[in-house]
Design a protein that fits this description.
By secondary structure, this protein is α+β, with helices and mostly antiparallel strands. The chain starts with a strand and ends with a strand.
Length: 418
């Protein structure tokens, strides 16, 4: 059996976990790292050598002037940046591919296994350009395209929590992620009374974020404790929370956060997890290989559709509801297509049904741009795709009716907010 991996790629640091037969996950680190669970997202090329280093070793080599360091690799991708090293210009995709390859190599060396059966890459926010580049980076490492998926942190957090005992998620679960790029708050709740159960997770960047450098002094730690205590009072007020999770480099130690912890521990379970997003991604990667999911839930979060999109059509003499996109599906994998014959229609009516509220709305797609033909002599190709969980694109293509009414390939396109 090949490897099952969860890989967390962020601008400040990255992490990798492996799913172990028996149902557990295991963290993987660079040898000799001080903070073994976190790999700084930096890459360094040694001077006059074709050797690329990552993490703390990259910092050390660059510090002594023996190499050129490039950091903030995710930001570099998003702004389509480049870096010139020893007179050679490298684009962001080339650099992240080298970095990603070294991270995956850690797992292959640890378990002496080259094959990767399933990999979930998790990122803080889903960005089409970033997703595509990371997938290509994984493919360049020898991972089959069908074995690669990209999830956001909110989704990985959902998998991590739902893999725990139901006592943990009996009520809402809160997550505070304190890292160099800010303070992030996640909230998970299970909406019961639905089949399947709906797991809704939301994320926001909190204004109370601060530089982690302040934690290096006693006075700074005291100030940070005061800030987070007020933050916890605000975001948790009036909520029934069964568990609170702390993650991120800022919570590597909580010696400075006495008041904050006291506030959190008021009738709640509080625990710290260094690698929650990579671990959650590993749980998800393992589940993708199962014929019957161990997570029989409908996940609604950033990166997944919150609504089901459908239309009514007649098939075999019966009027049936045709689902074009299912709520809970990763939007980057939710596209679909179908062929229909038009029967005296001026519009196609789509139904958008929200998974959380149960409410539905209608979207009309006018067909007046199609050629005028007798009823049932126009075949259309109906294609649905998504550029985010909230933005759907519908394309209707005229495919005609054989030689009698040749196809014009006319395209009707409409972007819809859902």
């Amino acid at each position: 059996m090949g490897l099952i991996l969860g890989v967390d790629i962020c601008d400040d640091y990255s992490q990798i976990s492996a799913f172990i037969p028996g149902g557990d996950v295991e963290q993987i680190a660079l040898p000799g790292e001080k903070m073994t669970e976190r790999i700084p997202s930096v890459i360094c090329k040694k001077k006059a050598e074709n050797e690329w280093l990552i993490g703390e070793e990259a910092y050390r080599v660059a510090l002594f002037g023996d190499g050129t360091l490039v950091d903030r690799l995710v930001k570099l991708i998003l702004k389509k940046g480049t870096a010139t090293i020893e007179g050679v210009k490298y684009n962001s995709e080339q650099l992240i591919t080298k970095f990603f390859g070294r991270v995956v190599e850690l797992a292959r060396n640890k378990y002496n296994e080259k094959n990767i059966d399933s990999m979930v890459i998790t990122v803080q926010e889903m960005e089409p350009r970033l997703n595509d580049i990371l997938i290509r980076a994984a493919v360049s490492c020898g991972v089959a395209r069908d074995n690669i998926h990209v999830y956001c942190h909110a989704e990985s957090f959902s998998y991590y929590i739902m893999a725990q005992s139901s006592e943990i998620w009996s009520n809402q679960v809160s997550l505070f992620d304190l890292r160099g790029t800010g303070l992030y708050y996640y909230e998970l709740k299970v909406i019961r009374g639905r089949k399947p159960l709906v797991v809704q997770t939301v994320r926001e960047k909190l204004e109370e974020g601060f530089s982690l450098d302040v934690l290096e002094s006693a006075s700074g730690g005291k100030l940070a404790d005061s800030i987070l205590t007020a933050c916890a009072d605000r975001v948790l007020a009036g909520k029934l929370v069964s568990a609170v999770v702390l993650t991120g480099k800022g919570f590597s130690t909580t010696d400075w956060a006495g008041s904050f912890l006291s506030t959190l521990c008021n009738r709640r379970r509080v625990f710290q997890s260094n690698q929650i997003f990579a671990d959650g991604a590993a749980y998800a990667a393992a589940d993708l290989l199962r014929q019957n999911s161990s997570f029989p839930y409908l996940f609604v979060c950033e990166g997944r559709l919150a609504s089901t999109v459908s239309l009514f059509a007649v098939y075999g003499g019966r009027r049936e509801n045709v689902v074009l996109a299912q709520a809970g599906t990763n939007w980057s994998e939710a596209g679909s297509g179908a062929d229909f014959f038009i029967d005296d229609l001026k519009n196609i009516e789509l139904t958008v049904s929200a998974a959380v509220t149960g409410r539905s709305a209608k979207i009309l797609i006018p067909l007046d741009e199609l050629p005028k033909r007798p009823n049932k002599t126009t075949r259309i190709e109906f294609i649905v795709s998504f550029s985010s969980e909230h933005l759907m694109t519908v394309r209707i293509i005229d495919r005609g009716f054989g030689d009698l009414f040749p196809a014009t390939d006319k395209v009707i396109r409409q972007d819809c907010s859902i």
